[in-house]
Design goal:
With 76 residues, the chain is of the alpha+beta class. The protein contains 2 helices and 6 strands; from the N terminus they run E-E-H-E-H-E-E-E. It has a single domain, classed as Winged helix-like DNA-binding domain superfamily/Winged helix DNA-binding domain (Arc Repressor Mutant, subunit A), CATH 1.10.10.10. Strands 2-1-6 form a 3-stranded antiparallel beta sheet. It has a 3-stranded antiparallel beta sheet with strand order 3-5-4, covered by helices on one side.
Amino acid sequence: MRFVEFTNGIKTFVSGEEQELIKHVMETGIVLKKDLKERQQLLAKRLAEKSILIRQKVGNDIQFKLSNSAEYTAPY
């Protein structure tokens, strides 16, 4: 199990699958929803609900990017 720590010191746990998606978003910067598989789309939505990712509608696309307040991830 891993966690994401926010700049205000609050920690939230993430699964291994969520951690992989976070790393992918960190590497690419911005990920379009249409480029994600169905399972990844559900994970991205869950991470947006946890305020780890930011979901934005740009034109006809929905994109995800890492929240500025999500400082880093680390193993627990």
